[in-house]
Write a structure and sequence with these properties.
The chain has one helix and two strands; from the N terminus they run αββ. By secondary structure, the protein is an alpha+beta fold. Strands 1-2 form a two-stranded antiparallel ribbon. The termini are far apart. The protein binds zinc ion.
């Protein structure tokens, strides 16, 4: 069942505050990310 692990880790990081959620594709990203690695959308510098 290791294919489930990465999702769980992402959610754990999200709760820890190290990640944010992309408003375009709803994937978890590092909070420092300025470009979505999934959709390539620009997220702007921080919140
Ligand atoms: Zn995205």
């Amino acid at each position: 069942m290791s294919f489930l692990t990465s999702d769980n880790d992402q959610e754990k990081n999200f709760r820890k505050g190290d990640t944010k959620r992309c408003p375009y594709c709803a994937e978890y990203l590092k909070k420092e990310a300025i470009v979505c690695k999934h959709g390539g959308k620009s997220l702007g510098p921080g919140d």
